[in-house]
Amino acid sequence: MRKGEVKKEQILWAGLELMKLHGYNGTSVKDIVDAAGVPKGSFYNYFDSKESFATDALEAVALEDEQMTRATMAAIDGSPLAQLQGYFTASAERFCDRDFRQGCFFGNMAQEMSDSNDVIRDAVERIMQRKTQSITQLLDAAQAAGEIRAGADTSQLAEFVFNAWEGTLMRMKASRTREPLQTFLQILPRLLT
Fold first, then answer.
1. Of 121, 129, 169, 176, which sits with the fewest C-beta atoms within 10 Å of its C-beta?
2. Which domains occur in the chain, in start order?
């Protein structure tokens, strides 16, 4: 990685951690550069605006999440439904490890910014569509393996599962307890089979 790319990554990840904790509106460019330990001008060498920073941050988290999802799935020896359950179980544990405070970065950004910023809303929607498509692919494989009924609309089921997961994370943050996650994990297999 070139020096400029390293500096951009440094700023991106330092600011991203702040945005995860405080949201878009609760994080200023000054906060980002202070966290990264760079002068304010450095920010604008790599990002056109705070909005462009946020869309890059969303894509960085999406890429990290996709890599983690692949690694989680590869580690699960089992059927497509077992992999799906394993993915959500591993994700639930990560949220528990964060003391139920952060929730889903994409969901948080959607809730905060969708009414006020179309660029960020569109970026979040694209990422959420990719995540839903990944669930659809697993459900297609589960259907082909006879794990779910042959006539089930897997894309509609995937949409429901993903939306339920996002709602679960919102409820987890509000209650700051594990119970919403446990309920989701218990209901998911019954919903799909």
1. 176
2. 1-47 (1.10.10.60), 50-192 (1.10.357.10)
Regions of the chain with pLDDT less than 50: none
* pLDDT at residue 44 in the model: 94
Residue 81 and residue 193: Cα distance in Å, rounded?
A: 9
Please tell me the predicted confidence (pLDDT) of residue 75. Answer: 86
CA-nearest of 133, 126, 98 to 21 is 98
**Are 15 and 35 a contacting pair, CB within 8 Å?**
yes
pLDDT (0 to 100) of residue 1:
61
